Amino acid sequence: MGALPFSLWIAHAKGIDIQSVGSGNPGATNVARSAGLPWGILALVFDIGKGVAAGWVTYSLQAPLWLAGFAVLGHNWSVFLKFQGGKGVATTLGVLGFISWMGAAWTMGVWGILVALTRKVSVGSLIALLVSPVILFLLNEDITIVALFGMLAGISVIRHRENIQRLFQGEELSPRESKKE
Q1: Which of 15, 89, 155, 165 could form a disulfide with 125 if both were Cys (CB 3.0 to 4.6 A apart)?
Q2: What is the pLDDT of residues 13-66, one digit of tens each?
Q3: Phi then psi for 131, rounded to 5 degrees?
């Protein structure tokens, strides 16, 4: 489920090869920059939906909820994209929203404040995901859920390596900027 590359398909519907424009990342932010905000929002909704659906399926099967985290791995290393993929932020948010709507609300609040202050989606995404296990701990979530989001945050840091390098070089884009070709 997580491997379904909605951002790629949505951009393709607009005649755009998302992997060869902008950042090259098949994610909602790049879709918004390359195809327009409405298309980026659609990609975001579908990527969040993958995480929610994964949570719902694991819950419905009475399986451990941490298994929903595999949707993020599928998104990040999609079999449909030759084991390439996005950074997993929206799909992680979907899993988080299913497991703890309050944890997701607080995490989104952190994200919104940081994006407003820094004008960098990557800063908001990274720090919000890194803070999410702390939020879940403070909300008394099960320790396996706290650990799951700690691991997903760590994976997100790895997936954002290039963004982190651009941040240190002062070259990271703000939400409305496109990569200068």
Answers
A1: 89
A2: 999 998 888 778 888 988 998 899 999 999 999 999 999 999 999 999 999 999
A3: -85, -20
**What is the residue whose two structure tokens read 């954002």?**
160
**Within a 10 A sphere around the Cβ of 122, how many other Cβ atoms?**
23
Whole-angstrom distance, CA of residue 79 vs CA of residue 36: 26
SS3 per-residue string spanning 7-50: HHHHHHHCCCCHHHCCCCCCCHHHHHHHHCHHHHHHHHHHHHHH
pLDDT tens figures, 92-142: 999 999 999 999 999 999 999 999 999 888 899 999 999 999 999 999 999
Q: 132-163: b or e for each residue (b if 16 or more CB lie within 10 Å)? A: bbbbbbeeebeeebbebbbebbebbeebbeeb
Alpha-helical regions (H) of the chain: 6-13, 28-35, 37-60, 70-76, 89-99, 101-118, 121-138, 143-159, 161-169
**Residue length of the chain:** 181
The answer to pTM > 0.85 is: yes
Instruction: Give the contacts of 176 (CB within 8 A, at least 6 positions apart).
Output: 33
